[in-house]
Amino acid sequence: LYACLDKRNYKYAMIVMHHQPIPVGSDWLDGLGLINADELLKSIPKYPRIKAFVYGHVHQAYATEKKRYPV
Hints:
By secondary structure, the protein is of the alpha+beta class. It has 2 helices and 2 strands; from the N terminus they run αβαβ. It has a two-stranded parallel ribbon with strand order 1-2.
């Protein structure tokens, strides 16, 4: 991922993942997330070209939105 994000030939980037990188309030599902989720989430602000980060695999109603300014 970082090798792709470090390339200068992309103006924008979007990260799409299957498993969730953050707890979603489900006892069994929260244990299935990424091992290095904290590292990934802390690195995103270093790449302003990332305009969206989408993940799924949440088997219940759940939505969250975090904005990074300036956009």
